[in-house]
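Thread: Newbie trying to understand structure tokens

Hi all, I'm a second-year student working on a class project, and my supervisor (Dr. K.) asked me to get a predicted structure for one chain before our next meeting. I've only ever worked with sequences, so writing a 3D structure as a token string is new to me. If someone could post the tokens and maybe explain what I'm looking at, I'd be very grateful. Here's the chain:
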Amino acid sequence: MRNELKTIIARHLEAHVSAVGFAPVERFAEAPEAHHPATVCKDAQTVIVFGIEVPRGVLSSPAYNLYALHRAYHTVYRRLDEISLELCNLIESQGRHSAVMIPSYAPMVFHGAEPWGLISLKHAAVQAGLGAFGRSGQMYHPTFGSRLRLAAVVTDAALPGDALIDADPCPKKCRACLQSCPTGAFTAEGRFEKMKCLGHTIKHAIYPLALKDANSLKHIERVINTAGYDYWLACDECLKVCPENR
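---
Reply by user tm_fold:
Sure, no problem. This is what the structure looks like when written as tokens:
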């Protein structure tokens, strides 16, 4: 029955997504307590992670690279959420199971000014065998590099997990992303500083107006999860120079 349900799910998704993986909840033992799959779905047993690739051509567009990337990201986010909802209903139609969708982007949870997903989709993708972390802090798929946008479903159905990928996805001695970053979001040791990157890259017309002082920042979660959804991307240098994205 476990294998049968996994096959039903995989066949349902194969025409809609670029990649899919399954992770038993035991693989999330080290996840922060507030962002463990069990906080999303009661009696969670399996996290199903899937992604849709952003076309390579977006990264080499001569004049409209960021325009195309902006639209690609936000089109994919919405499509992934639709697929997540459809998958939850499919799982629940197969028996006495529950399933909860993990948003591809918003809504998010904020710790101070730092955005967190309900669970980390990048970490979930690694635990589901979709790829491994590279030096840029992104998850790299063997075929699509870091061009996958991700979503997930957490279910109380116990399904077999997929094999993990242990190999380092980055070419030996490659430092292309570290050297190209205009914000210096990598430390001398190569550690990625997420907030430095986000402050430079993620822009929205409403942010300077709605989040202009300390009192306004108290409402950052509400602002970004509603009015700030369709943000602008001001940088993708690490994506463009990465050999794994070609």
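A couple of things are worth pointing out once you decode it. Residues 2-161+174-245 form one domain. The chain has a mean pLDDT of 95. Feel free to ask follow-ups in this thread.
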